[in-house]
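Hey,

Quick one before I head out. I ran the complex with iron/sulfur cluster overnight. Inputs first:
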Amino acid sequence: MKNADELQLLYYLYILKKRGIEKRGKIAYTKEKKVIEIELDEKNEEKIRKVIAEVYKIVENEAAPTLKKLTYCKSCAYFDFCYAEEGEGENAK
Ligand code: SF4
């Protein structure tokens, strides 16, 4: 989930920058006792712009993408949405 965590923080930094606020961010992994610093440099800004463009492409599709069952789905906050039609919602956790 490290990549997802970084993208989420990059998104926040990107939105703040668009509002005239330039900040750096930190992600704290308490179990691992590790802190990662994230900066919205040119490379990361390009990366988050591409991800946002991909999200818009998905949103504009007529149907949702096919479900890819991933090992970390059961601990994901969106599990009930992704698996709603599979009958593996809340009770399957
Ligand atoms: S539950 Fe859905 S959003 Fe979460 S990791 Fe699985 S496929 Fe991705």
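The pocket of iron/sulfur cluster is lined by residues 68, 70, 72-73, 76, 78-79, 82 (CB under 6 Å).

Talk tomorrow,
K.
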